[in-house]
Amino acid sequence: QVQLMESGGGLVQPGGSLRLSCLASGRTRNIDTMSWYRQPPGKERELVAAFTGSGTTNYGDSVKGRFTIFRDYAKNTVYLQMNQLKPEDRAVYYCYAHTSYGSVERPYEDDYWGQGTQVTVSS
């Protein structure tokens, strides 16, 4: 089992910045990919940024060039630095972790989600 706890959300003015943090605990050695998703009001959840186990990063088109995901393996924490925030970035942001374990013959994988943290961009 893996537990994820997000922090850092809040209210910010357009053009401002926020940094979200997600602390993983439990069986963290099985975690490969950690990601941030968001769900705007009345819309479906969407990928914001991902940090894979191989160290590559992927971003949603709407945040490229403004958001940066980075990971501190020693602290079991993934961060999302959000700059140049826009009103349309308003959403509940969720941390996600994918775990892989077992053997080649019997592989297992699980998905874990945090509770979410609200980000509001408004003047």
Contiguous low-pLDDT stretches (5 residues minimum) are none
Rg estimate, integer Å: 15 Å
The helix tally amounts to 0
Q: How would you describe the shape?
A: elongated
Report the portion of residues in β strands. Answer: over 45%
Q: H/E order of the elements? A: EEEEEEEEEEE
Span of the ends, CA to CA:
40 Å
Mean pLDDT: 96
Structural class comes to mainly beta
**Helix content range of the residues, please?**
under 10%
Biggest sheet architecture:
7 strands, mixed
Strand segment tally? 11
Give an overview of the whole structure.
The model has no long low-confidence stretch (mean pLDDT 96). This protein is 0% helix and 59% strand. The protein is built from no helices and 11 strands. 28% of the residues are buried. Strands 2, 4, 5, 6, 9, 10 and 11 form a 7-stranded mixed beta sheet that branches. It has a 4-stranded antiparallel beta sheet with strand order 1-3-8-7, with no helix packed on it.
Compact description:
With 123 residues, the chain is mostly beta strands.
Q: Secondary structure elements and their pairing?
A:
Blueprint: E1 2-7, E2 10-12, E3 18-26, E4 31-39, E5 46-51, E6 57-59, E7 67-72, E8 77-82, E9 91-102, E10 107-113, E11 117-121
Parallel strand pairs: 2-11
Antiparallel strand pairs: 1-3, 3-8, 4-5, 4-9, 5-6, 7-8, 9-10, 9-11
Keywords:
elongated; 123 residues; 7-stranded mixed beta sheet; 4-stranded antiparallel beta sheet; mainly beta
